[in-house]
Amino acid sequence: MTTKRILILNGHPAETSLSKSLAQAYSAAAKAAGHDVRTTHLHDMEFDADFGGAGYVQIKPLEPVLKTFQEDVTWAEHIVLVTPMWWGGLPAKLKGLFDRAFLPGWAFDPRNRAKSGLPAPMLGGRTGRTIMTSDTPGFFFWLLYRNALIRQIKSQIFHFVGIKPMKVTHFSGASKADSATATKWIETAASLGRQGA
Fold first, then answer.
1. Helix, strand, coil tally for the chain in percent (to 5)
2. Whole-model pTM above 0.90?
3. For the segment 89-141, what is each residue's pLDDT rounded down to a tens digit?
4. Residue 14 and which of 2, 24, 128, 134 are 20 to 30 A apart at CA?
5. Are 158 and 164 in contact (CB under 8 A)?
């Protein structure tokens, strides 16, 4: 098996969460399998999540944790995002992380255009995995919401900057999951970690 440089981002803003348990399980299994792993917990990051302003003319100076996050993304070959779905979207602080860190000139190039006509991505050569939890059952998520958050994560965030393929593992019924179910999910995360998938 080829080992990888893997960045794991636990996108839950609380210190204790199912997302953190999933991220830790992935990390431990990946390290045991010989992968080089860095893990970032959103709850440890202190930064202003409000991008502020309009457009990219006046960009706030990046806090040290955001610079470190960018360095980790640059270093990584595979990026794993672990996040809950809240109100059909990402937690506000996690969205703020992408707003602040995925900037033009670093994540995408608005001066050059891809074949699609969109700004050229600058983070190509990396793959990704999202592990998402929600209360919304998978069938309803697809039927009623057309997998809206998954499409946002894959296409409007990661594919936009060149990180692809971005595969998704979705665990639903998170707030009512019993210990046996949570254990099964954690084992799945660990299996993905061993594979570097």
1. 40, 25, 35
2. yes
3. 999 999 999 999 999 999 999 888 877 888 999 999 999 999 999 987 666 56
4. 128
5. yes
Are 123 and 109 in contact, with CB atoms under 8 Å apart?
no
For the chain, give the number of residues.
197
Contact between 33 and 40 (Cβ < 8 Å): no
Listed in sequence order, the DSSP H helices in the chain are: 18-32, 64-75, 92-101, 138-145, 148-151, 159-161, 179-195
From residue 93, alpha-carbon distances to 10, 16, 83, 127 in Å are: 12, 16, 11, 23
Count CB neighbours of 48 within 10 A.
Answer: 11
47 within 8 A of 97, measured Cβ to Cβ: yes
Strand partners, 113: 119
Condensed to tens digits (0 to 9), the pLDDT of residues 45-75 reads 999 999 887 667 778 899 999 999 999 999 9
**121 beta partners:** 108
